[in-house]
Every structure is written in C-alpha cells, then in structure tokens.
Amino acid sequence: DLVLQSIRAQVLVPMPVPPTDPPQIRSCTGPELVAGNLRLRHAADRWGQFAVTVAGQPFAHSYGNDQIGYLRDQEAAFLKLADAPCAVTLEEGSIVARLDLADADGVKWRLERRFAVGGDGAIGVTTTVAVAAKRETFHLPLLTLFPGLGSFGERKSQAVLPGVEYLADEPSSSEADVRGPLANRKIVDDVKLCFPFMTVVHAGRWLGVAWSRQDHPAPLFDSPDRTFGSGAHLFGLWYPGVGPRRLENSVAALDAMPLVPDEPLVFRYELLAGLGDSAVAPVQAYVARHSLPPVPENTGGYGAAVDLLAHGWLDSASNQGGIWRHAVWGKNFPPQPAADAVYFQRWLAGQTGDAGLAQRLRESADQGLAKTKDNLSSGVSHVRFGPLPYLLEGGIEARIDQVVAGARQALSRFAADGVLTYHPREDRPDYSSTHFAKHANGLAAPVAKQVLEACLLGGDPDLWRDALALVDRLTTLYAGTVPRGAQTWECPLHTPDILASAYLISVYTMAYQISGEGKYLEQARYWAWTGIPFVYLDPPVEKPVGTYATIAVLGATNWRAPFWIGQPVQWCGLVYGAGLADLAKVDRENEALWRQLASSITVTGVQMSWPTSDHDRQGLLPDFYHLVAQRSDGPAINPGTVGSHLPDAFGKGRIYDCQVLGPQRLLVHAPGDLQVVDGSTVQLAAWPVAPYRVLVVGVTAKPTITWNGRSVEVTYLPAHRAAVVHLDGSGTLTVH
After folding, report:
1. Which of 79, 116, 313, 538 has its CA 20 to 30 A from that of 274?
2. Are the CB atoms for 633 and 567 separated by under 8 Å?
3. Range list of H helices, 498-617
C-alpha cells in the first residue's frame, strides 16, 4: 500500500516571452579595459552596451536593449533599461555603470555593473540589482552577448558548452545526434554542464564566458543565434534558472523569482579571451584559471577500494565459477574465460590486508587460469593490459606473432589517404546518415590503436614505418577537429565522444613512444584536452558523487534514447583516464595534470560502484549513474575497468608498465611499476609472487641484461627485435 501525505501541482503556464528584437550595433565611446588580448569598451551613457575585441579584431557586441520582466499586481510588465540615463565611469581601473530608475508604480530600482581586469585575457563582471520594495522578476538578463555580431557572423571554427555541445562550424541544438524535442539544448539544466563555461572560436581567436554553477542562472547558448535573429551567435545568462521557475529550453519563464528590499542580488561572471584555432585553447584557459578540483575521497581509502573490487570478482553475479560475465544485466553478456580476471585477482590478493580474502582471490584466479590458459588474450574489461598474461604465463613470442599479423590486417582496412570508411550493418540503422562524411576520427582510432599496440610488442621496422605513416595520415585528416564517432554500435557517427579522445590519446602516445618525435606528443596532448569538456570539473550536485563523473557522448542512442547528455557513463571516462595515465609517463610538462585527471576519474568510478550490500552487483561498476538521485543503474560491469589503474590513483604504482629506455628507444614491458634510472637502466617494483617475464623490444642483436647487478639468461627473438628475461621479485634491470 502507498499513502501520500501531500501532493503539489503547478500549472505550467509560461510567463510572457521577453523582447527579442534583433540587436543593433551602437557606437561604444565610453571607457575601455584591456586585459591581454581582450579589450572591452563600454558605451558612455547606455546600460549594458559594450563591445569586445580579441587580439585587435572585433569579436562581440552586447545587447544594449535588455529589459527586466516583473510582476505588477500579478500582471506581467517590462522595465526598459535603455530608457533611463546611465552613468558610466572609470573608477580605480574598473568600468562602473550605474542605473537608477523607477517602475510604473514608482518603485526604485538600482543597478550597478562593474568590469575589472582579472588577469591576462580575463575581465570579471559583477552585476548588482537592488529594489526599494518587494518585486518578483520573471526575466532578469545578467548577460546577453552576441559573438560575431558585426564581424564574422554565424561562422565559427569550433564552439563548446561542456557536457552539452562540442561543435565544428555547424548549428547547436541540431538533430545530427539527437532527434525530437531533446535536440533543443538552447537552455539546459545546469546539472548537465560539466563545468559552467561557454565559448566560440573563430579565425584563431576565441571568446568565452565562465560563471559559478552555484549562482544558478539559465545559460543561453545558441550558435548561430536563432533566438534574436542577430546573424551571429548568442551567449546569455538569465534569471530565473532552470528548475521550478523555468523549463529547459524555454526562453519564457514559468514563474517569477522574488527580489527582497535591502537584499541586493549580486551576480558574477568572467569574460575570457585569447588566441587558438580550436576549443582546446579556451578549455585550457578555463582550467588554468579555475584549477582542477581535488581528487575525490573514497570512504575507507585504498584498502576499502581493493576489498570492494575483490568482492566484485569473487562474490557478484559476474563470477560464474572461473568464467566471468562482462556485465550483469539479465541474460545479456554470457560468461566467458577471462585472462584479465585472473591477473586482476592475483594483483588484488597482494594488496588486501584480509588473509582469507587474499586466499580466495588466489584460488579463484587459479580456477580462472585453468579455463583460459589456452586463450590468454581473452578478457571482459574495457581496459586491459594485453601483454600482461603472457609476461606471467609465457607464450610471448607466439602472441607477438598474432598481434603483428592482426596489425597488418588492420592496416589493410585503411584507404591510401588514411580514411577508414563506415559501413552500416544490415541489422542496424545507417549511423552515418547525419554526419558530413562516411568516416570519423573516433571510428578510425581504435583500429589504429591496434596497430600501434603491435608496434610496442614487435620491433619490426617495416611495421613501425607503416604504422607511423598511418598516424601521419590521420593527423592530416583529423588534427584540430572534434572527437566523435567512436560508438557506432549504437550512436551516430557524428556524435562527439570521449572514447574518441581516449583512443586518439593512446594512438599518439604510442607513436611518440616508438619514434620520439615531438609532433606525436603534441597531438596526444591535443586529444587529451578534447576529453576534458566531457568531465565534471566542479560538483554538479551538492552530494558526494559528481566531480570527475564523465559524460560518454553528446547525443542519444539511435538518435532517440537513452539520452546521454547529463548522464555519466564512467566506463568511457575510465578508458579516457587510462589513456591519460599513459600520456603522463611521457609528457613531463603536463604529468601532474594528466595524473590528477586519471586518478580522480578512477576514484569516482569506485564511488559509483555497487556496495557489498548489493549481493549480485557488489563491486561492479554501473553502466550509467544518476547524479541527482546518487544512484547506480544499468548493466553492472566487471571490476576490471575500475581496477586497471586503481594503484595509480592511490600512488601505489602500476599493475603493468611499459617504459622507453635510452636514445635507441627500447621498450621495456613488465608486470609492475617501472622507473627509468638512466638510458640503460630501470627500477622495477614487481607485484607477482611467482617468477615472471620482462620483454625488451627494439634490440637489434642479443643484449646482455643484468638484474640487480647479475647477468641473467636472455631469450632473443630476432624476428621481432625483442628479448625476454625471466625474473623474480623487484630490483634494477640494465640492458647492455
């Protein structure tokens, strides 16, 4: 039985639409501020009228004709701000605009807006609204700005509303990724914003607006502007925000918000600007100004995370007696042999402080190995360490033969210009039908990743040459573009996608590892930055889980549902985080940044995982997560995706590592954490309790290898320019 204590109904009758007459370009002859490449000049006597230039070029104009909508005897009325005299002065380096006026009932309103230089390329704007008597406002515009007005018009290079839009020169709120009413993303609930920022890039320059999520305005993003018909783009921050007083994507509010006498409303935002050809530059500027939030705290710390994932492998419904399901979801995802489950459990056995749990993990791993030793490439996790089972169990030469043959086949799938063409399956829609091409970077990247992974294992110079040539062709095709098209098993090819960023990071990181050429490192950095607009960089809700949750795609499955905007899918973020963790090893300039992002995404994945109180799903990662409800949902994914970089996240080393050694760029693979000492030596902190193997790739003759100062027997694989040594414990390895 269900008993309702109370119920509340709201009549959804919108307030009047605020005036949206097209803006006019008016001369701004008042005071100006200069902050690096950003210049703002205000009109001398008109409220809200200012112009913005970036690096000497006109870039945006404000509306200058804003009106406040308020209730007068419960009837809608508008207060025209442009009709009242406005005093604009330069005070102690700040532009200050003041406006005093009275409404139709003689109630006095006082508005003040202060512009102050906030650093290179940044101007902070503070708006204060005060009334002398109680008033309710249904339209209070804090910012209405038109990038491109009077200059580049509706064109753009890229634009971003983090978590919602990632655009090339194309319309926002389009049906390329979502069809129907949900395609309208003009005004969204701010819980869908990965961070409160919007930006437009054109011709090597960009302008952005940043604000505080806690102030809860309605962010208005229309590119191009179809709201006012300005022939440009539209940035807006309006009150009331989305919630009880405004539906999403409604220019007209549902209800008015109170303004209390002697309690001025104060609202702040920043104008940011600079140089750059893509949305990466403004995202970098936002992160530089606001910094990354701290790594989330997992209740119980590292030990609790280890034990939770251990119970996931052992006690959840994923475990089917030595074989595992990728995910628990009805009859889907049948169990299969899984070599990754074996090594993850062996590693966990050495990390837990519970002796009984450790013994169970070892026994479960042995049971799994008995069912998978003839297929060590098997696995159920989204993040796997391909060579690791062979370093533990043997058979590495045969495995190299397999991956090199697979790489050759993968290379053959690309056309001469590097295009990997999308071909729809007969039983699926044509997901390329809304894209401007039959290919995309996210479609090509996982196949290219397979080729580069083979290069790390097999030192065939011809394969390395062909692989790098392919990467160069991909650079020609996709450098500086939007990450998209990596999930065409259900999402349109056009859809912006964090997995595309993830795979491209890996491709270029590996290309840099085998070549040492800086151009590949620069591309890896670029694609790392493209993933950040999919990551929540401030709390979307005032609850424990939210920061560093990751949006998978900016669209919907089959263009309709599920709708993924505002819906974290952490396994996609964990694949991205795995790419960042590898990039951090080679990008010393940004190592701390990439490590913090990767670690935080992992800890957030642990936070989202089902607790041990949920018998069938304990220790498993939800396919998606409800931020407001703080609830895990969807298929329950095995613990490997979260666990793959768990030790990195807590400063405990790595489960598997590959490091570059010396100018010859030898590639050293090992089960544990590698630290390069010099051009010929690495320090290895290994975790296996049994003997294991280390693989050295890139040697042109049989090397001499010492372990803790003593020579060890070397197996040389001339066809792969590789050497294998059997080791035990941790220590120092030197290749002569």
Report:
1. 538
2. no
3. 498-515, 518-531, 570-586, 591-608
Beta-carbon contacts of 293 under 8 Å, excluding residues fewer than 6 positions away, are: 537, 538, 539, 547, 548, 600
Report helix, strand or coil for 491: coil
Amino acid letter for position 4: L
114 vs 96: CA distance, rounded Å: 4
Give CA 563 to chain center in angstroms: 17
Judge contact between 60 and 231, C-beta under 8 A: no
Helix or strand run (H / E) with residue 404: helix 396-411
Put residue 475 in one of left, alpha, beta given phi > 0 → left and psi -120 to 50 → alpha. Answer: alpha
- Inter-CA distances, 511 with 400, 451, 455, Å: 18, 10, 9
Chain position carrying tokens 């890139």: 698
- For the cut 80, the answer to whether the pLDDT of residue 9 exceeds it is no
Q: What is the mean pLDDT of residues 494-513?
A: 98
Q: Please give the pLDDT value at position 10.
A: 67
Contact of 661 with 683, CB cutoff 8 Å: no
From first CA to last CA, the distance across the chain in angstroms is: 77
> Which pLDDT value is given to residue 8?
79
List the one residue out of 525, 388, 394, 502 whose CA is nearest residue 456: 388
Looking up tokens 């515009």, which residue turns up?
141
Task: Specify whether the CB–CB gap between 323 and 368 falls below 8 A.
Answer: yes
Model pTM above 0.85: yes
Q: Does 11 have pLDDT greater than 90?
A: no
DSSP state of 480: T
The mean pLDDT of the chain is 97
pLDDT tens per residue across span 600-619: 999 999 999 999 999 999 99
The residues pairing with 711 across neighbouring beta strands, listed in sequence order, are: 706
Overall average pLDDT of the 400-404 stretch: 97
* pLDDT at 731 > cutoff 90: yes
Q: Quickly state the pLDDT bin for 496 (edges 50, 70, 90).
A: very high
Cβ neighbours for 619, distance < 8 A, ≥ 6 positions apart: 308, 309, 310, 311, 312, 313, 315, 316, 609, 610, 612, 639
Complete edge-to-edge strand list for the sheet that includes strand 158-161: 86-91, 94-102, 108-119, 122-131, 265-275, 205-211, 197-202, 158-161, 165-167
Instruction: Report how far apart, in Å, the C-alpha atoms of 123 and of each of 22, 199, 233 are.
Output: 26, 15, 20
**What residues contact residue 263 under an 8 Å CB cut-off, 6+ apart?**
none
Q: Is 561 exposed, middle or buried (0-12, 13-18, 19+ CB in 10 A)?
A: exposed
Please count the residues of the chain: 736
In sequence order, the β-bridge partners of residue 150 are none
DSSP per-residue string spanning 180-213: SGGG--SB--GGG-SSSEEEEEETTEEEEEEE-G
CA 571 to chain centre: 12
CA 113/CA 131 separation, integer angstroms: 15
- Tens of pLDDT, residue by residue over 440-470, are 999 999 999 999 999 999 989 999 999 999 9
Residue 314 — φ and ψ, nearest 5°? Answer: -90, -45
In three-state secondary structure terms, 313 is helix
**Cβ within 8 Å of residue 712, ≥6 positions away:** 705, 706, 725, 726, 727
Mean pLDDT of 411-438: 96
* CA atoms of 218 and 250, how far apart (whole Å): 10
Report whether pLDDT(2) > 80. Answer: no
Query: Residues 502-528: what's their mean pLDDT?
Result: 98
pLDDT reported for residue 103: 96
User: Nearest 5°: phi and psi at 304?
Assistant: -65, -40
